[in-house]
Design brief:
The complex is a heterodimer of chains A (about 475) and B (about 475).
Chain A: H1 5-11, H2 13-17, E1 45-48, E2 54-59, E3 65-72, H3 86-93, H4 105-112, E4 116-121, E5 126-133, H5 137-149, H6 155-174, H7 181-190, H8 194-197, H9 204-209, H10 212-222, E6 228-234, H11 238-249, E7 272-278, E8 285-291, H12 298-310, H13 317-325, E9 333-336, E10 350-356, H14 363-379, H15 384-402, H16 408-421, H17 430-435, H18 439-449, E11 455-462
Parallel strand pairs in A: 2-6, 7-11
Antiparallel strand pairs in A: 1-2, 3-5, 3-6, 4-5, 8-10, 8-11, 9-10
Helix pairs in contact in A: 5-11, 12-15, 12-18, 13-14, 14-18
Chain B: E1 6-8, E2 46-49, E3 55-60, E4 66-73, H1 86-94, E5 97-98, E6 101-102, H2 103-111, E7 118-121, E8 126-133, H3 137-149, H4 158-173, H5 176-189, H6 202-207, H7 210-220, E9 226-232, H8 236-247, E10 268-273, E11 279-288, H9 296-306, H10 313-321, E12 329-334, E13 339-348, H11 352-368, H12 373-390, H13 394-406, H14 413-422, H15 426-436, E14 443-448, H16 450-458, E15 467-469
Parallel strand pairs in B: 3-9, 10-14, 10-15
Antiparallel strand pairs in B: 1-12, 2-3, 4-8, 4-9, 5-6, 7-8, 11-13, 11-14, 12-13
Helix pairs in contact in B: 1-4, 1-7, 3-8, 9-15, 10-11, 11-15, 12-14
The chains are: A alpha+beta (about 475), B alpha+beta (about 475).
Chain lengths: ~475, ~475
Amino acid sequence: MRILEGLAAGIGAVALAACQPAGTPGETDGAAPPAGAGGFTVDVSYHSLDNGLRVVLSEDDTVPTATVAVYYGVGFRNEPRGRTGFAHLFEHLMFQGSRNLPHGAFDTLIYGAGGVNNGSTRYDFTNYYEVVPANALEAVLWAEADRMAFPDLDADQLDNQREVVRNEVFVNVINQPYGGWIWIDLPMAANENWHNAHNFYGDLTDLDAASLADAQAFFDRYYAPSNAVVVVAGDIDKGETLGWIEAYFGHIPAGDPLPEIDVSEPRQEAGKFAVMEDALANRPALAVAYHMPERGTPEYYAMILIDQLLLQGDDSRLTRAVVDEAGYASDVFGGINLLGNAFNYDGPMLWTAGLIHDSEFTVSEVMTAIDATIEGIRTEPVTQADLDRARTKLLSDFYGTVDTATRFGLVDLLAAFALFDDDPGRINRIAGGFAQVTPDLVLATAREYLRPANRTVLEVRLAGGGDAAAAPGGNGE
Amino acid sequence: MPHTLIRAALGAAALALALLPASAGAQVHERPEIGEPVAFALPDTRHFTLDNGLEVTFIPFGLAPTLDISLQVRAGNIDDGAQTWIADLTAAMMEEGAAGRSRAEISRAIAAMGGQIDISVGTHATGIGTNVLSEYGPEALQLIADVAMRPDLDPAGFERVRANLVRDVDVTRARPGAVATEAYRRLLFGGDHPYGNYLPAEDRLRGYTMADVTAFHGNHFGAGRSRLYIAGRFDAAAMETAVREAFGTWAQGTPDNAVTAPARAGPAVRFIDRPGAPQTTVRLGFPAAGIGDPDAPELTVMNALLGGSFTSRLTRNLREDKGYTYSPGSSLTWTLDGGFWTFNADVSAADTAAALRETFAEIERLQSEPPSHAEAEGIRSWLAGIFILQNASTGGLIGQLSRRDLFGLPQDYLDRYVPRILAVPDAAISDAARTYLPLDEMTLVLVGDLDLIREDVLALPQLAGAEVTGPEGE
């Protein structure tokens, strides 16, 4: 185990020190970081190959494993019209084999080495990642390069994975109560631009229509080194690792420039109200979503703190008001980017809050409690103590994200900052954005972005009109 | 709240890696060899016991300046008696306030340290824990002690808290997986033991009183039946002082009197109708030996090879070859002196009988033919490798150590785990499948559209002779 205290004191204590709470719990005076907290800096080394492949390396020998992540700059927003869900279906295809690792051999290589692997598709990226004992690192890099260069796109495998994905949609959405309301239906209702407003798990008819030709075209366009980032973190030798990456990935042709797509959302000027029925649910549900400030702006950092103040943790205002005081629900949940976090996206995004409530409470009642809480933060400046507590929660969350057994949280942030900002070192400067947020900025941000006109309300009703209490109560402003 | 028995979600498989021969132009580089296995040792821990019986374990570990505190009280659903989820209701009331401070005050105080109080009820233990910035360790520890030792149990919040649980149970019952698990547990353990009561009936839950909660806390919480784990970066001397101050006055409590129950053998099949369901939710299982049994390593490797990893035979067959399901899997669940093995999957309705046919065939194949050495070696290697990952975080280490302690395993259990896995002979994997997965004693639960699936499923020869029940009224 390596203790970073000494190392970080000189190099990067500034990075997160601004978030460190001071004084006794529950009190804040904004003073210097408390003694004994230690600093914490993520080791970051950034490189670019001649073919445009970006490489991020981060060394830490706490445990003798290495995590590899390959992020491609393609996600739901890029998929073609008439092919909803294609980015995700294609992710499945990328697991089906490559020239030197036929069907199943990639997984067998990783698991036989004592590791695990997976992948995921999100708004603005598709990722593939492995964590293995460090002795298998070179073989994993070779395997990822093999599938970047020579994936085995095969019609039989496409048909097989079409069925697997159909079953995935069944088990996660169609055969579940509350299956997709808050993370699929709500963005579809809140967004105007097709790129943000389509069903990104995919209409089943679109999945059926996907062809091998689609897959080849998608691969050729998006899965090129110039649109990818490779991150390696863990118990590694950075020089040796970079050498392997150059050897295995360096020969792959760069790829053409990506087509420009406009993913922007217009400013929302009127509140929206959407209703859906859920035949499998037995309690109604309700969610609200607001368009976020643009990523990276001062207001964006303020909104991340507002999320902490309103929604995250037992001390949050919505939890207090809706759960503890009113007793409408057991829990209020949500946040920024329900399929990731506040950092790993690159385009319009929503801040979302939702709950499942008893039928005896009307939508009007519940919305009144939500409105009162949100109006509170739009009219009264937050106290410094509340703001400091929100920063402390964020700092703790950050540690929880980057210091895990698999290091997946760490490599995800590094990849996102490399892919979207060309600046993975940003991971050590996140705190700076939060340090600049004042009570005045919180108030101004809440006034603009928590406007009722910037909001979409989604009401989930029970099937068959059995939910007599669900009549909209003028909340669709 | 998790209501799983402690799961050993270990498993893996590996078919022999069949590399294509390197033909000209087909590859730029030869596949690199995988190097010598890395050395891995668990971090050193420190253990001490307070006079009142509280067992304390310190685990220095990690990079970030945070620490995990986890108090594990031997008070779980196994102690519910006939009051299913009284442990959960008690835990929920403990979150309402302690030592005269309200939930709002406590939640603000712990949030200012970077954490929150998490109380979770499992089959065998209630965990009270938090994760905070390192400098707040002693203060956070005091809050944990207050919640465990001095909950206010104020009747004012009782109706709301109980209504929350009623709502949670109701929402849970809408999920096909929960419906299947509830029926599966009932078949395995019957209705007279808490292991067989996965969810409470709503009318029973509504009948629990504040007095029931107070009694449960009084009878099942105390230093003599609790273990405290602290993992992360912290000043050990300061924390030991804090532990003695915060917990030194805790009463020993009532002695542990949990009564375990063995899982029952089938054959038993239960159908539950979910009209219109596009998938059938499957639970298939058998009683197993316990985690401390000499057969546990063989069971663990067998599970990994058959269904417990992404490279397992059932995953390869049902998902990657047939496309019947997205997330098939198998697991071993340990009880106090036994356990059970479960295969679970959500399969497309039209393929239900075919998926069961393939599942039975894979079990029979493993029973009749030992796996190849390469396949068995791949699985053992996987289990050895992921042991590192299972112990590579503060939460993982606490989970591993607390499981060892809960089940009364030897202190060197974790040190011996990997060697014991690596020593499982290839043939013993098939032996375990024969001993523990006798298809004529299966327990099977299917939740789906019975008009679509029932007839084909009942035609499977492996189900001949099974007691078939459900849906109600038939």
